[in-house]
Specification:
With about 230 residues, the protein is an alpha+beta fold. It has helices spanning about 15-20, 80, 105-115, 115-140, 145-160, 175-180, 185-200, 215-220, and strands at about 25-30, 35, 45-50, 55-60, 65-70, 75, 90-95, 100-105, 170, 200-205, 210. The longest helix is centred in the middle third of the chain and has 26 residues, at about 115-140. Keywords: DNA-binding, Transcription, Transcription regulation.
């Protein structure tokens, strides 16, 4: 399998990347398997080689909320690189058979000391994630639920692009999972999906949503902050 380009390591010399990855531990996960739980000790990050993972948190009322889906080339658990004594802030679970390279913070610390610009890359990545969470908070407070569903469909499609059938990204998430991402109900997701299918922007099959016209969906997902 060809090695994906990891966004976290973008710009580092190939020999340094190879050195870091040589210390990585190959991990494989079955669909539904939890990589780590929120509150677990944090001492390593994961670089995603294949498959997709859901990033989830639990609310004070016991509900489980999916914040994001990450796929090949992405990473998770980076906070362990900056604050190894802090507990995990979210639960990560595989959505399908998946593989990562687990890199211990000691090895990444060595790369940071030898290549200080690595800190800038890590800071930019974490800053981008904070901005994205802030945008989602504004959307949750001020955008209609149907608009949020359309936007989350586009977000998840980006993670699955390349694995889809010809004509668009194919998303194998349940309506319950899409509802969790959008912070709404399954009934609302079902309504939006049926509407989009009628408009020809997507096709619904059992357990799968295939985007057919991403540009049209993007236009329909625009809101006051779009």
């Amino acid at each position: 399998m060809s090695r994906p380009e990891f966004a976290l390591l973008a710009g580092a010399p190939p020999e340094e990347i190879a050195e870091l990855l040589s210390h990585g531990r190959r991990r494989t996960f079955a669909a539904g398997e939890v990589v780590f739980h929120a509150g677990d000790p944090a001492d390593c990050m994961h670089l995603v080689r294949s498959g997709r993972f859901a990033v989830r948190v639990s609310t004070e009322f016991g509900d489980v909320v999916t914040l994001n889906v990450v796929g090949p080339g992405d990473s998770f658990g980076e906070l362990a690189l900056l604050t190894p004594d802090a507990p995990r802030s979210a639960t990560i679970a595989a959505l399908e058979p998946a593989e990562t390279l687990s890199v211990h913070e000691i090895d990444f610390r060595r790369l940071r000391s030898e290549r200080p610009q690595t800190d800038a890359v890590l800071s930019q990545l974490l800053a981008a994630r904070v901005r994205r969470l802030s945008e989602q908070l504004v959307e949750a407070l001020h955008l209609p639920a149907d608009t949020r569903v359309r936007r989350r469909l586009l977000d998840v499609a980006a993670a699955y692009r390349g694995d889809g059938e010809e004509g668009g990204a194919s998303i194998p998430l349940t309506q319950e999972e899409l509802a969790s991402l959008a912070g709404t109900s399954r009934a609302t997701v079902n309504k939006v999906l049926r509407e989009e299918q009628a408009h020809g922007t997507l096709e619904l099959t059992r357990g799968r949503t295939t985007l057919l016209d991403t540009a049209a969906l993007e236009r329909r997902a625009r809101g006051p902050f779009g």
